[in-house]
Amino acid sequence: MKPIAYVSIHGGHSGRFCFHARDRLEEIINRYIELGFAWVGITEHLPAHEERLRYPDEAEANLDCGDMLAAFEAYIRECNRLKEKYKNEIRIFTAFETETYSGYETIVPEMVARHKPDYIVGSLHHVDDLGFDFSREQYLDTAARLGGVNALYERYFDRQFEMIRAIDPAVVGHFDLIRIFDEDYETRMKQPSIRQRIVRNLELIKARGAVMDYNLRALLKGAREPYITAPILELARKMEIPVIPGDDSHGVSDIGKNMDRAVETLHKLGFDTNWSLPRLYQWKE
Fold this sequence. Notes:
two-stranded antiparallel sheet; single chain; about 45% helix; alpha/beta; TIM Barrel; seven-stranded parallel beta sheet
């Protein structure tokens, strides 16, 4: 049997362009090459467009929206430079990860048109402009504001559905990130009001021809399994939705961690491990 190639559909956050990451982007690219990755999508975060939407660490560091936009534009230039420099050693995609807060339906298409990425990863780190994944305290506060953890899940999957319809991302990132600080997520996801939303969203992903990110960062943070949790992963397989590993690396030391486990899991479940590329934008020169 031919060895299964290492790839990352959602990776490469780096310290110069992401405040909660480490290391230079070129160091990160070199690590992917060293580990023999066939291709990698570098998926830096889209910057906040309002001060109130910054991550807590960005606000604490007094980074304003202008600073973050300048860093993002520098990221696009640097990633394109490295894509050309290392084209004979690895295939690099210059991509970015969206945010889903007020105005994204206009902002994301504008940023796509301006910066011409190879593809985008549609992600949620906010529900109704409230962050939920930065800390347990933030998660519980947001849940309380929205009416409890069940309500938070329901709103998350509703907002995810709207996001997929609005911006049509080639990749849906860490589909069930909403369970990040919920120890009872396995039971909660079986509840009819939540499960029907999950199935609805998977049907839309299938209809749009998107792929799903099998996101390994959860394991680095002590979770029992990656995003996507096993029951949802089985549903995706039955629906023939492509699922591709993403290390969601935030520094050189993250790259390749748990990749063997991910590949083995996806292979055993019957996913196609001749990894298809995500749907790429076709830009005219």
